[in-house]
Amino acid sequence: MTESVHIVGPQFSNFVRSVQLCCEEKGIPYSLGAEIAGHPMALHSAEHYALHPFGKVPILLHGERRLVETASICRYLDAAFEGPALQPEATWQRAQVDQWSGLLALYVDQALVRRYLLEFVFPKGEGGTVRLDAVAAAQPEVVRNINLLEQQLAEGDYLVGDDFTIADAIAAPMLDYLAGMPAAKDILAETPRLMAYIERLRARPAVAKVLVAPDLGART
């Protein structure tokens, strides 16, 4: 089995960045991009659907193996490669990491990224303007979700205790994007633990390497 992996997907995707973070934290060699064996793969093409039945990213390629869904990919990387553990050994704490990974990927991402941040990044209003009504409608759920994270961070430096885990790898890209949005400044000002957590994440070498300004021109 090859020692390196390939992450299929554009680097601006928060979930692609989560997989990158796991690779960086564990020291796993990887390549990245919407291509297979050096050949470009158009997103939502027949080739894409052959790799992921719902046409999503990221997709992990490891030799002849193919794996989809961010949390599953991250758990595989943690188990299959040497390097710092990204999951606790204790059963209950590991279940907590799994729980938060699922909550983040299913619900927090929908509230923060799909229904809020993307309204600013890829405006769908007339003439390419931001739909302020859509932003206003999404904001209460943004507030509810960041308050949930604020409460959880009373338990430790990271989402599950005091060690960086897969849950933090999933949270970091979406929170970094949120903290970079001027419109979210006042919302985040009400969650000091969350803001301190974001800065703690950004200070990690792996996070600083991965959370770079996105090349949105790569979107297809």
UniProtKB/TrEMBL annotation:
<feature type="domain" description="GST N-terminal">
    <location>
        <begin position="3"/>
        <end position="85"/>
    </location>
</feature>
<dbReference type="InterPro" id="IPR010987">
    <property type="entry name" value="Glutathione-S-Trfase_C-like"/>
</dbReference>
<dbReference type="GO" id="GO:0005737">
    <property type="term" value="C:cytoplasm"/>
</dbReference>
<keyword id="KW-0808">Transferase</keyword>
<dbReference type="Pfam" id="PF13410">
    <property type="entry name" value="GST_C_2"/>
</dbReference>
<dbReference type="GO" id="GO:0004364">
    <property type="term" value="F:glutathione transferase activity"/>
</dbReference>
<dbReference type="InterPro" id="IPR004045">
    <property type="entry name" value="Glutathione_S-Trfase_N"/>
</dbReference>
<protein>
    <recommendedName>
        <fullName>glutathione transferase</fullName>
        <ecNumber>2.5.1.18</ecNumber>
    </recommendedName>
</protein>
<dbReference type="InterPro" id="IPR036282">
    <property type="entry name" value="Glutathione-S-Trfase_C_sf"/>
</dbReference>
<dbReference type="InterPro" id="IPR040079">
    <property type="entry name" value="Glutathione_S-Trfase"/>
</dbReference>
<feature type="domain" description="GST C-terminal">
    <location>
        <begin position="90"/>
        <end position="220"/>
    </location>
</feature>
<dbReference type="Pfam" id="PF13417">
    <property type="entry name" value="GST_N_3"/>
</dbReference>
<dbReference type="GO" id="GO:0043295">
    <property type="term" value="F:glutathione binding"/>
</dbReference>
<dbReference type="InterPro" id="IPR036249">
    <property type="entry name" value="Thioredoxin-like_sf"/>
</dbReference>
